Amino acid sequence: MSAANGRRIAVVLFNLGGPDGQADVKPFLFNLFNDPAIIGLPGVVRTPLARLISSRREKEAQANYARMGGGSPLLPETRRQAEALKAELQSRRPGDEVGVFIAMRYWNPLTEQTAAEVAAFAPDEIVLLPLYPQFSTTTSQSSLKLWNETYRGPGVSRTVCCYPRADGWIEAQADLIRAKLAEAGDRPVRVLFSAHGIPETLVAKKGDPYQEQIEATCAAVAARLGPIDWSICYQSRVGPLKWLGPATPDAIQQAGRDGKGVVLVPIAFVSEHIETLVELDEEYGELAHEEGVAPYLRAPTVSLHPAFVGALADAVIDGLGRTGVAPFGPGCQGRWKACPCQRERRAA
Ligand SMILES: C=CC1=C(C)c2cc3[nH]c(cc4nc(cc5[nH]c(cc1n2)c(C)c5CCC(=O)O)C(CCC(=O)O)=C4C)c(C)c3C=C
Ligand SMILES: [Fe+2]
Ligand SMILES: [Fe+2]
C-alpha cells in the first residue's frame, strides 16, 4: 500500500522503557535482568538470577520511582519526542505519510505490540532509530536484535545505529550547557559529562563501542563550547562487576577537592527519567551539598530541543536516502563492527 503522492514511512523509536506504576517495577526489572545483553549467561542460569535480582531490588527501586509520582516519565517524554519528530518529518516530506512508533525494550509498549502496529500501518519503508546517541550492545543492539527477530510486516528497513557526533545533537547539548554556564556566572565550575555506565568487560572483551562514542560526543560538545574545564564520568552502577569509571559521585567529590562547582550533563540520555530526576538531581545533589560543591547545576536532557529533533529528522532522511540492503548500519544488527559508522571512525 502506498500513500497517494508518496511513500508510507514508519519510524520506530527505541528506548529502554520504564514502569508505569509501582506494581510494574518488579516485572520491568525482571525483563531487564533477563536480557542476555545485560546478563550474558545461559537462560537456565540467567532467568532464575533475574527473578532473584528483581525481587531483591524491587523495594528500593519502588521507593525511587515513588519519588517521581510512582512510575517512570520515560514513555510520556518519548511520546512527546515522537510527535515532534513526526511534525518535523511531515514538514520536510509533505508528500509522504509518516508514522512514528515507539518500541520499548523492557516495558510497554513492548516490541511485539509495536511490531504489530507497524505491520498494520503497512509501510513502504521503515527507519529503525534508537533513542541512544551512542551505540551499545546493552541498549541499541539489544533492541534492534529483538525487533529484527519480531517484525514480520512489509517495508524495506533501514537502521540508524548511532549518532554520537550528529550536528544537531551536539548543538542541543552545547546550547543547554551554555545556559548553565551563564547561570554559574564567574564562579569556577567543571562540566561533568555523566554517562550511564556499563561493565568494563563489555568494552574489553566484546569490543562494545559505547565508551569510545561517549568520548566522541563529549569531545565534540566541549569543542563547540570553547575553553572549559570538563571531564567524563559514569553513573548508575549495578551489580558486582567492575564498571567504566570514574564513577560520577567520585568525580563530584574530586571537583569539590579542586575547589570547583559542577555543571552536570547527562550525555547518554535524551529525555528525563529516574536516572536524571532521582539519581542526578536528588542523590548526587545531596552528595554535592555534603561535599560543599557549589554551584551544583544540572543541564536538562535534550528532550524537545529543536536542534535535537532536527538531528533525529536528519538521521531518518539520511537513512531513507541510503540504497540497497546495506543502509545505515545493518552491521549494527548484531554485526556492528562492519557498520559504516565504524568505518568512518577508523578513517577519522
Ligand atoms: C545509555 C543508556 C543506558 C545504558 C548503557 C544502560 C545500561 C544498563 N542499565 C542497567 C540496569 C538498569 N538500568 C535502569 C534504568 C535505566 N537505564 C537506562 C539507560 C541505559 N541503561 C534508562 C533510560 C533507565 C531509566 C528507565 C526508567 O524507568 O525511567 C534500571 C532501573 C532503575 C534502577 O533500578 O536503578 C536498571 C536496574 C544495566 C545492568 C546496564 C548495563 C549492563
Ligand atoms: Fe540502565
Ligand atoms: Fe553503526
From TrEMBL:
Keywords: Cytoplasm, Heme biosynthesis, Iron, Lyase, Metal-binding, Porphyrin biosynthesis. InterPro entries: Ferrochelatase, Ferrochelatase_AS, Ferrochelatase_C, Ferrochelatase_N. Its EC number is 4.98.1.1. SUPFAM superfamilies: Chelatase (SSF53800). It is found in: Cytoplasm. Fe(2+) binds at H196, E275. Pfam families: Ferrochelatase. Catalyzes the ferrous insertion into protoporphyrin IX. NCBIfam families: hemH. HAMAP family: Ferrochelatase (MF_00323). PANTHER family: FERROCHELATASE, FERROCHELATASE, MITOCHONDRIAL. Belongs to the ferrochelatase family. This is Ferrochelatase. It comes from Brevundimonas balnearis. The lineage of its organism: Bacteria, Pseudomonadati, Pseudomonadota, Alphaproteobacteria, Caulobacterales.
